[in-house]
Amino acid sequence: MEKFAFIIHPLEVKDVARKFAFTRYLPEHVVENVFRLVPPMKVSDITGISTPHSQAEGWFVTCPLTARQMIGLPEKYVLAKIIQSGKLAEKLGAKIVGLGAFTSVVGDAGYTIAKNLNIAVTTGNSFTVATAVEGAKQAAKLMGHNLENVHVVVLGATGSIGKVCSMMMAGEVRNMTLVARNKKPLEELAEKILYRTGLSVGITSDVKAALKKAHIVIAVTSSVDTIIGPEDLMPGAVVCDVSRPRNVSRQVALERDDVLVVEGGVVEVPGDVNFNFNFGFPPKMAYACMAETMILALEGKYESFSLGRDLTIEQIREISALAQKHGFRLAGFRSFERAITMGEIEKIKKNALGKGLKVV
């Protein structure tokens, strides 16, 4: 039996109530201040992961800091908390630990954490990229878009996930705009894409302007606030929101029946899996970053796999092949924590055509 662990943390204060219901009655600042002092703990046992080749079990371990605390507290303090969580994973018997949500963003994106643990570490970002790109492409085709003609916008393009998403999509489209805060990393990435693919991409820090011309948006920023509102998108736009917390405002779902927003990186896990914890998904479904940790465990590949901010296309292909081998697959489409049917997508497409969408 292969063994793994995955570190989670509350994205928002209200997420603490998933495990501790009484906290919903307390002021948010009280919950944050108290849980900042709480040591990492095991949240649940993960059982029943099974493929024709292997079996695995594991644990969810929590680092009790919210997304805002991960960003706002001193980096040294946050890293120490994450390392403590990894040490707990070691004690439980895990041979590899995955870094969930903002635990994979802090500091040097996993390297310092890996150096301080005696087990392998992965951010899960390689499989996240693979599923995000595949999901965005599938959704665009369902909306009638021709990938060779669309304009793709990548938000958070210079992050570890954004860079590889940009590289992979650049080989299949004619128009692309990269969006990030800092100009120099954007220029470097644009030069790299031009050299490797021959595509000349646009760069900007103006999110709103970029979104106005986007047929496909891949959102992978580390913002703790939503940055895409209902007024930002053209009819027929497809948004693959990989970020947690999400980059797309829930108002988009309420006010725009002509755009398709899908959650990136949601996969179905093989076997009779039970996570014994509610993180908002139906049975057997998990984030791709979680799935990467499971895949590496099932393969017995106990080595640090996705670390840092320079993932390679070769890594994406390798983890995709292992996922296929062990029976992990995209879990259809989900939008704002619920499944979205083919019928609903057809209705969105029809609404978009009625509002002036020109299929490209």
List the helices and strands and how they pair.
Blueprint: E1 2-8, H1 28-35, E2 41-50, E3 55-62, H2 67-72, H3 75-92, E4 96-99, H4 111-115, E5 120-122, H5 125-142, E6 151-155, H6 160-170, E7 175-179, H7 183-197, E8 202-204, H8 207-211, E9 216-219, E10 238-241, H9 250-255, E11 260-263, E12 266-268, E13 271-274, E14 285-287, H10 288-298, H11 313-326, E15 329-330, E16 334-335, E17 338-339, H12 342-354
Parallel strand pairs: 1-3, 1-4, 4-5, 6-7, 6-9, 7-8, 9-10, 10-11
Antiparallel strand pairs: 2-3, 2-13, 12-14, 12-15, 16-17
Helix pairs in contact: 5-6, 5-10, 5-11, 6-7, 10-11
In what order do the strands lie side by side in the largest sheet? 5-4-1-3-2-13
User: Number of folding domains?
Assistant: 2
SS-based class: alpha/beta
Biggest sheet features: 6 strands, mixed
Shape: globular
Number of continuous helical runs: 12
H/E element order? EHEEHHEHEHEHEHEHEEHEEEEHHEEEH
- The pLDDT mean sits at 89
Rg for CA atoms: 20 Å
Portion of residues within helices: 25-40%
Distance between the termini: 49 Å
Pfam families: Shikimate_DH
Organism: Desulfocucumis palustris
GO molecular function: transaminase activity
Protein name: Acetylornithine aminotransferase
What do these coordinates show?
There is one protein chain. This protein is an alpha/beta fold. The protein is built from twelve helices and 17 strands. The chain has two domains: 2-126 and 267-330, no CATH class; 133-265 and 333-354, Rossmann fold (3-Layer(aba) Sandwich), CATH 3.40.50.720. 36% of the residues lie in helices and 20% in strands. Helix 5 packs across helix 6 (160-170), helix 5 (125-142) crosses helix 10 (288-298) and helix 10 (288-298) packs across helix 11. The protein is globular, with a radius of gyration of 20 Å. The chain starts with a strand and ends in a 6-residue tail after the last helix. The model has no long low-confidence stretch (mean pLDDT 89).
